[in-house]
Specification:
Helices cover about 45% and strands about 5% of the residues. It is globular, with a radius of gyration of 23 Å. The longest helix has 26 residues. The chain has a domain of about 220 residues: Serine Threonine Protein Phosphatase 5, Tetratricopeptide repeat, CATH 1.25.40.390. The protein is mainly alpha-helical.
């Protein structure tokens, strides 16, 4: 079922017109405490700041993204604490005003991407950025925009497809700038866009175009951004999968799995990048479901902490194993906005506990088809994923 949002699209574009007209005089003034457009897009460092800022805005749609993708599926359910809007999403019957069925947050980021891409074109034309640096940053924002459109298409079906930067209100009156594409047409367009981008691989501190440490990889608020950027081959694989072209989907996923081979990863990264290596039975410094050595038949020796084993995928620090497993990750930090929405959604400790795994998910984890190597007849990852606290 596709969420009905045609009125939302109309109101979104009408609101944009209103804002552009009502703020004209405001925009004629130079703000004293903000960066004016003339002070931006001067060099590759400005371009990096723009790319990082757009990725940061993705955190603002994280809650909506998870609710739309998971609560509409069969492995998540509402709790008795859930409000009307979450319940509507859960049963695929939304009403007007449901914030989760609002496409506007996605389109706001898309318009940011369009504006940045236009300015990147001007930067490389005016020699404010090299072709190599342009290729990386341009490709990244095309990929982000493609991912956003994929989400809109999955949930809303036929949607307006906008790639132009909207410089003024008259742009909004040109219907040719907003062609409505069916989902199949959209997938074709996104595949064509992604195939055409000039740079598809991951970044490192040594992969940059200028030789002056202009790599997109940096440290932001103590977090390394190595896995901050969307994996373009993985996105291409997803797009081909939605298209039903399983051969090209598998080809692009294989490119992801062979990242260490193709790029010559250092040391043991050559063997483990985006792959699960063998279990480290001696010290359990791995990402697998494991038990203490020589006590594998004792259920009480399960490795269940934030630094070892399968659970540590989601909690360990950014060490070698962390970076070898995560393909795309962005960070919430309690010291910065936006706040982490998932505590409120899923936890009864400091949160509202609104959502939970469905009974089907729990039954699948505990089902007879899930048998561990030690013979235990269930999938141990279920115990890592769900914990009952205070009833």
């Amino acid at each position: 079922m596709k969420i009905k949002i045609y009125a939302c699209f109309r109101y979104f574009f009408l609101l944009t017109i209103t804002v552009l007209f009502s703020c004209k005089k405001t925009f004629d003034l130079t703000p004293e405490n903000q960066v004016d457009i003339s002070q931006n897009y001067r060099n590759v460092n400005d371009a990096n700041a723009v790319v990082t800022g757009i990725y940061g805005k993705l955190l603002g749609i994280a809650k909506q993204y998870v609710v739309l993708n998971e609560l509409r599926a069969d492995l998540m359910d509402v709790t008795t604490n859930a409000d009307q809007y979450l319940r509507e999403i859960n049963v695929h019957n939304t009403t007007a005003g449901n914030p989760y069925a609002n496409p506007r947050p996605f389109y706001e980021i898309i318009l940011n991407c369009n504006d940045a891409l236009k300015n990147f074109d001007l930067m490389v034309k005016d020699n404010r950025m090299t072709q190599a640096d342009y290729a990386q940053r341009y490709s990244d924002l095309v990929a982000v925009r493609s991912w956003l459109y994929l989400q809109l298409g999955i949930h809303f079906g036929t949607i307006p497809y906008v790639t132009d930067a909207l410089a003024n209100a008259t742009d909004l009156q040109d219907a040719s700038k907003f062609p409505r594409l069916t989902f199949d047409q959209l997938i074709d367009k996104l595949i064509a866009d992604m195939v055409a981008i000039p740079y598809k691989d991951v970044y490192s501190v040594t992969i940059n175009g200028t030789g002056n440490n202009a790599s997109p990889v940096t440290t932001v608020d103590s977090y390394n951004t190595q896995n901050f950027f969307i994996n373009k081959y993985c996105l291409l694989g997803d797009l081909y999968l939605w298209k039903g072209n399983y051969t090209l989907a598998a080809t692009n996923y294989r490119y992801v799995l062979e990242t260490g081979t193709r790029l010559g990863a250092a040391n043991n990264q050559y063997f483990i990048q985006y792959k699960v290596p063998i279990a480290q039975v001696a010290d359990n410094n791995d990402l697998t479901v494991g038990y203490l050595r020589y006590r594998e038949q004792d259920i009480n020796t399960l490795i269940n902490n934030n630094n070892q084993g399968w659970r540590s995928i989601f909690a360990r620090t950014q060490d070698v194993l962390f970076n070898s497993e995560w393909i795309w990750i962005m960070y919430f930090d309690q010291n910065f906005s936006p706040a982490n929405p998932f505590i409120d959604l899923f936890s009864n400790q400091g949160g509202s506990y609104l959502l939970k795994p469905s009974q089907l998910a729990i039954d699948n984890w505990n089902g007879p088809l899930q048998v561990q190597r030690n013979g235990f007849p269930y999938d141990q990852r279920g115990k890592f994923t769900v914990q009952t606290i205070n009833g």
